Amino acid sequence: CRIIAVVVLISLVVVTLLQSLQTTPSIHDIPLSLRGHKLGGSARHNSARLNRIKKVTALFGEPNYLYEAAIATHERHNALHGHQMQILRQRIHASFLAKPAYLMSVLVEELNKPWEERMQWLAWVDPDTLVLNQQVPMDIFLPPPEEEINLIATHDDDGYFNGGVFFLRVDTWSLEFLIQVLAVPLTDRKHHVSLNKDHAALEQIMESQRFRNRVTYQPRVWYNAFDANKTYEGETGDLMVHLLDLGGDKWARMDKYLGNVTSKINPYEVPLDQTQYEKQVASFWKRMKDESQ
Protein backbone atom coordinates (compact mmCIF):
# COMPACT_ATOMS: atom_id res chain seq x y z
CA CYS A 1 0.00 0.00 0.00
CA ARG A 2 2.84 2.36 0.81
CA ILE A 3 4.37 1.87 -2.64
CA ILE A 4 1.03 2.45 -4.36
CA ALA A 5 0.53 5.65 -2.37
CA VAL A 6 3.99 6.88 -3.31
CA VAL A 7 3.41 6.15 -7.00
CA VAL A 8 0.10 8.02 -6.90
CA LEU A 9 1.77 10.98 -5.15
CA ILE A 10 4.59 11.10 -7.70
CA SER A 11 2.05 10.94 -10.53
CA LEU A 12 0.19 13.91 -9.07
CA VAL A 13 3.45 15.84 -8.78
CA VAL A 14 4.24 15.12 -12.42
CA VAL A 15 0.83 16.28 -13.60
CA THR A 16 0.95 19.44 -11.49
CA LEU A 17 4.45 20.39 -12.62
CA LEU A 18 3.75 19.68 -16.28
CA GLN A 19 0.56 21.74 -16.17
CA SER A 20 2.40 24.65 -14.59
CA LEU A 21 5.12 24.48 -17.23
CA GLN A 22 3.12 23.65 -20.34
CA THR A 23 3.17 27.24 -21.60
CA THR A 24 6.96 27.52 -21.47
CA PRO A 25 8.69 26.51 -24.71
CA SER A 26 11.33 23.81 -24.90
CA ILE A 27 14.27 24.00 -27.27
CA HIS A 28 12.24 22.05 -29.81
CA ASP A 29 9.59 24.79 -29.89
CA ILE A 30 12.16 27.32 -31.10
CA PRO A 31 12.62 27.77 -34.86
CA LEU A 32 15.68 26.03 -36.28
CA SER A 33 16.88 29.34 -37.66
CA LEU A 34 17.15 30.68 -34.10
CA ARG A 35 18.63 27.67 -32.33
CA GLY A 36 21.40 26.62 -34.67
CA HIS A 37 24.34 24.97 -32.99
CA LYS A 38 27.45 24.95 -35.16
CA LEU A 39 30.81 23.64 -34.11
CA GLY A 40 33.96 25.66 -34.36
CA GLY A 41 34.94 29.27 -34.88
CA SER A 42 32.71 32.26 -34.43
CA ALA A 43 29.53 30.38 -35.36
CA ARG A 44 29.77 28.38 -32.14
CA HIS A 45 30.29 31.52 -30.07
CA ASN A 46 27.37 33.26 -31.79
CA SER A 47 25.12 30.35 -30.79
CA ALA A 48 26.38 30.28 -27.20
CA ARG A 49 23.36 32.25 -26.00
CA LEU A 50 21.16 29.37 -27.16
CA ASN A 51 23.36 26.80 -25.42
CA ARG A 52 23.45 28.30 -21.95
CA ILE A 53 24.93 25.77 -19.54
CA LYS A 54 24.77 25.57 -15.77
CA LYS A 55 27.11 23.17 -14.01
CA VAL A 56 25.60 21.49 -10.96
CA THR A 57 27.47 19.75 -8.16
CA ALA A 58 27.26 18.95 -4.45
CA LEU A 59 29.84 19.46 -1.71
CA PHE A 60 28.95 19.28 1.95
CA GLY A 61 30.22 17.73 5.16
CA GLU A 62 33.70 18.24 6.56
CA PRO A 63 35.68 21.02 4.82
CA ASN A 64 38.03 19.70 2.16
CA TYR A 65 40.39 22.20 0.56
CA LEU A 66 41.18 19.88 -2.37
CA TYR A 67 37.52 19.62 -3.37
CA GLU A 68 37.18 23.38 -3.01
CA ALA A 69 40.25 23.87 -5.19
CA ALA A 70 38.79 21.49 -7.79
CA ILE A 71 35.56 23.50 -7.84
CA ALA A 72 37.65 26.64 -8.25
CA THR A 73 39.00 25.24 -11.54
CA HIS A 74 35.38 24.99 -12.71
CA GLU A 75 34.67 28.55 -11.58
CA ARG A 76 37.57 29.87 -13.66
CA HIS A 77 36.32 27.83 -16.60
CA ASN A 78 32.78 29.16 -16.13
CA ALA A 79 33.99 32.77 -16.11
CA LEU A 80 35.92 32.22 -19.32
CA HIS A 81 33.05 30.62 -21.27
CA GLY A 82 29.94 32.14 -19.72
CA HIS A 83 28.78 28.98 -17.94
CA GLN A 84 27.00 29.21 -14.59
CA MET A 85 27.34 26.95 -11.55
CA GLN A 86 25.11 25.93 -8.67
CA ILE A 87 26.43 23.97 -5.67
CA LEU A 88 24.48 22.01 -3.08
CA ARG A 89 26.11 22.86 0.25
CA GLN A 90 23.73 21.12 2.67
CA ARG A 91 22.80 17.45 2.86
CA ILE A 92 19.17 17.14 1.77
CA HIS A 93 18.74 13.38 2.17
CA ALA A 94 20.52 10.70 4.15
CA SER A 95 20.64 8.30 1.19
CA PHE A 96 21.85 8.42 -2.41
CA LEU A 97 18.94 10.67 -3.45
CA ALA A 98 20.83 13.96 -3.14
CA LYS A 99 22.15 14.04 -6.72
CA PRO A 100 18.88 13.44 -8.63
CA ALA A 101 16.84 15.39 -6.07
CA TYR A 102 19.06 18.45 -6.31
CA LEU A 103 19.19 18.19 -10.09
CA MET A 104 15.41 18.19 -10.17
CA SER A 105 15.20 21.26 -7.93
CA VAL A 106 17.61 23.16 -10.19
CA LEU A 107 15.73 21.96 -13.27
CA VAL A 108 12.37 23.17 -11.96
CA GLU A 109 13.94 26.49 -10.98
CA GLU A 110 15.19 26.94 -14.55
CA LEU A 111 11.93 25.84 -16.15
CA ASN A 112 10.12 28.49 -14.14
CA LYS A 113 12.11 31.23 -15.90
CA PRO A 114 11.22 32.82 -19.26
CA TRP A 115 12.99 31.02 -22.09
CA GLU A 116 15.33 33.91 -22.81
CA GLU A 117 16.59 33.83 -19.20
CA ARG A 118 16.81 30.13 -18.46
CA MET A 119 19.69 27.75 -18.89
CA GLN A 120 19.31 25.34 -21.80
CA TRP A 121 21.42 22.53 -20.36
CA LEU A 122 22.51 21.35 -16.93
CA ALA A 123 25.91 19.66 -16.63
CA TRP A 124 26.40 17.58 -13.52
CA VAL A 125 30.05 17.51 -12.41
CA ASP A 126 31.20 15.54 -9.37
CA PRO A 127 33.36 17.53 -6.92
CA ASP A 128 36.30 15.21 -7.64
CA THR A 129 36.42 16.40 -11.25
CA LEU A 130 38.69 19.28 -12.15
CA VAL A 131 39.24 21.28 -15.31
CA LEU A 132 42.62 20.66 -16.94
CA ASN A 133 42.23 22.64 -20.15
CA GLN A 134 40.44 25.94 -19.60
CA GLN A 135 40.29 26.60 -23.36
CA VAL A 136 37.57 24.00 -24.09
CA PRO A 137 33.95 25.14 -23.52
CA MET A 138 31.26 22.70 -22.42
CA ASP A 139 28.84 23.61 -25.20
CA ILE A 140 31.04 22.04 -27.86
CA PHE A 141 29.70 18.60 -26.85
CA LEU A 142 26.03 19.48 -27.24
CA PRO A 143 23.90 18.10 -30.08
CA PRO A 144 22.97 19.92 -33.29
CA PRO A 145 19.44 21.40 -33.18
CA GLU A 146 17.87 18.61 -35.21
CA GLU A 147 18.99 15.92 -32.74
CA GLU A 148 16.31 15.17 -30.15
CA ILE A 149 18.77 14.22 -27.44
CA ASN A 150 18.08 15.10 -23.81
CA LEU A 151 20.78 13.28 -21.88
CA ILE A 152 24.45 12.90 -22.82
CA ALA A 153 26.61 10.62 -20.69
CA THR A 154 29.67 8.35 -20.65
CA HIS A 155 30.41 4.73 -19.70
CA ASP A 156 32.81 3.37 -17.10
CA ASP A 157 35.33 0.61 -17.84
CA ASP A 158 32.64 -2.06 -17.40
CA GLY A 159 30.25 -0.45 -19.85
CA TYR A 160 27.93 1.03 -17.24
CA PHE A 161 26.78 4.63 -16.90
CA ASN A 162 29.21 6.80 -14.96
CA GLY A 163 27.58 9.74 -13.21
CA GLY A 164 30.72 11.83 -12.73
CA VAL A 165 29.86 14.16 -15.60
CA PHE A 166 26.71 14.20 -17.72
CA PHE A 167 24.48 16.68 -19.53
CA LEU A 168 20.71 17.06 -19.09
CA ARG A 169 18.58 19.29 -21.29
CA VAL A 170 16.33 21.78 -19.52
CA ASP A 171 12.84 20.72 -20.55
CA THR A 172 9.86 18.71 -19.31
CA TRP A 173 11.25 15.39 -20.65
CA SER A 174 14.09 15.76 -18.15
CA LEU A 175 11.65 16.59 -15.37
CA GLU A 176 9.69 13.40 -16.01
CA PHE A 177 12.96 11.48 -16.20
CA LEU A 178 14.19 12.67 -12.79
CA ILE A 179 10.83 12.01 -11.15
CA GLN A 180 11.06 8.42 -12.36
CA VAL A 181 14.63 8.18 -11.04
CA LEU A 182 13.55 9.34 -7.58
CA ALA A 183 10.79 6.72 -7.57
CA VAL A 184 13.17 3.79 -8.21
CA PRO A 185 14.04 2.91 -4.58
CA LEU A 186 10.35 2.99 -3.69
CA THR A 187 9.11 0.86 -6.59
CA ASP A 188 12.04 -1.53 -7.15
CA ARG A 189 12.70 -3.81 -4.18
CA LYS A 190 15.95 -5.11 -5.73
CA HIS A 191 17.50 -1.67 -6.04
CA HIS A 192 18.95 -1.62 -2.51
CA VAL A 193 21.63 -4.18 -3.44
CA SER A 194 23.43 -1.76 -5.78
CA LEU A 195 26.61 -0.16 -4.45
CA ASN A 196 26.30 3.06 -6.49
CA LYS A 197 22.60 3.56 -5.94
CA ASP A 198 22.34 6.97 -7.59
CA HIS A 199 24.13 5.75 -10.73
CA ALA A 200 22.05 2.57 -10.79
CA ALA A 201 18.76 4.46 -10.50
CA LEU A 202 19.74 6.94 -13.21
CA GLU A 203 20.89 4.16 -15.53
CA GLN A 204 17.79 2.06 -14.93
CA ILE A 205 15.53 4.87 -16.12
CA MET A 206 17.92 5.92 -18.91
CA GLU A 207 17.73 2.41 -20.36
CA SER A 208 13.96 2.08 -19.99
CA GLN A 209 11.88 1.97 -23.16
CA ARG A 210 10.22 5.28 -22.37
CA PHE A 211 13.45 7.31 -22.16
CA ARG A 212 16.31 5.53 -23.93
CA ASN A 213 15.71 6.99 -27.41
CA ARG A 214 16.78 10.44 -26.14
CA VAL A 215 19.93 9.26 -24.38
CA THR A 216 23.36 9.02 -25.98
CA TYR A 217 26.84 8.13 -24.77
CA GLN A 218 29.97 9.98 -25.83
CA PRO A 219 33.64 8.97 -25.42
CA ARG A 220 34.57 9.26 -21.76
CA VAL A 221 37.96 10.86 -22.39
CA TRP A 222 36.32 13.97 -23.84
CA TYR A 223 35.25 15.32 -20.44
CA ASN A 224 35.16 12.49 -17.88
CA ALA A 225 38.62 10.94 -18.25
CA PHE A 226 39.70 8.78 -15.33
CA ASP A 227 43.01 8.69 -13.53
CA ALA A 228 43.77 4.99 -13.10
CA ASN A 229 46.94 3.44 -11.69
CA LYS A 230 48.46 6.92 -11.41
CA THR A 231 47.98 7.46 -15.14
CA TYR A 232 45.68 9.94 -16.86
CA GLU A 233 43.74 8.12 -19.57
CA GLY A 234 43.19 11.28 -21.60
CA GLU A 235 45.59 13.30 -23.71
CA THR A 236 47.16 16.72 -23.39
CA GLY A 237 44.45 19.23 -24.25
CA ASP A 238 41.54 17.17 -22.91
CA LEU A 239 39.05 19.07 -20.80
CA MET A 240 38.80 17.34 -17.42
CA VAL A 241 39.99 14.56 -15.15
CA HIS A 242 37.76 12.56 -12.81
CA LEU A 243 39.60 11.28 -9.73
CA LEU A 244 37.50 8.45 -8.40
CA ASP A 245 38.20 5.21 -6.54
CA LEU A 246 41.88 5.94 -5.97
CA GLY A 247 41.85 4.98 -2.31
CA GLY A 248 44.57 6.65 -0.27
CA ASP A 249 46.26 7.92 -3.44
CA LYS A 250 43.32 10.12 -4.36
CA TRP A 251 44.38 13.18 -2.39
CA ALA A 252 48.00 13.04 -3.54
CA ARG A 253 46.92 12.67 -7.18
CA MET A 254 44.40 15.47 -6.82
CA ASP A 255 47.01 17.73 -5.27
CA LYS A 256 49.41 17.00 -8.13
CA TYR A 257 46.84 17.89 -10.80
CA LEU A 258 45.89 21.06 -8.96
CA GLY A 259 49.52 22.07 -8.73
CA ASN A 260 49.90 21.68 -12.49
CA VAL A 261 46.74 23.53 -13.52
CA THR A 262 47.44 26.47 -11.20
CA SER A 263 51.08 26.87 -12.24
CA LYS A 264 52.21 29.64 -14.60
CA ILE A 265 52.59 27.07 -17.37
CA ASN A 266 49.72 24.58 -17.32
CA PRO A 267 50.99 21.47 -19.17
CA TYR A 268 47.41 20.42 -20.01
CA GLU A 269 46.23 23.69 -21.54
CA VAL A 270 45.97 23.78 -25.34
CA PRO A 271 43.94 26.15 -27.55
CA LEU A 272 40.71 24.56 -28.74
CA ASP A 273 41.71 24.68 -32.41
CA GLN A 274 44.85 22.68 -31.60
CA THR A 275 42.85 19.82 -30.07
CA GLN A 276 40.89 17.09 -31.84
CA TYR A 277 37.61 18.11 -30.22
CA GLU A 278 35.92 19.98 -33.06
CA LYS A 279 36.69 17.27 -35.60
CA GLN A 280 35.80 14.38 -33.29
CA VAL A 281 32.57 15.89 -31.96
CA ALA A 282 31.37 16.85 -35.44
CA SER A 283 32.12 13.29 -36.59
CA PHE A 284 30.21 11.88 -33.60
CA TRP A 285 27.02 13.81 -34.36
CA LYS A 286 27.30 13.12 -38.11
CA ARG A 287 27.55 9.40 -37.39
CA MET A 288 24.48 9.59 -35.15
CA LYS A 289 22.54 11.38 -37.88
CA ASP A 290 23.59 8.85 -40.51
CA GLU A 291 22.64 5.91 -38.27
CA SER A 292 19.18 7.35 -37.62
CA GLN A 293 18.34 7.65 -41.32
UniProtKB/TrEMBL annotation:
Signal peptide span: 1-20
Family matches, as Pfam families: Glyco_transf_34
Keywords: Glycosyltransferase, Signal, Transferase
Keyword Signal carried by entry: yes
GO cellular component terms given for this protein: Golgi membrane
One of the GO biological process terms: protein N-linked glycosylation
Gene3D superfamilies the record matches: Spore Coat Polysaccharide Biosynthesis Protein SpsA, Chain A
An annotated Gene Ontology molecular function: glycosyltransferase activity
Similarity annotation: Belongs to the glycosyltransferase 34 family.
Name of the featured protein: Galactosyl transferase GMA12/MNN10 family protein
Organism: Aureobasidium pullulans
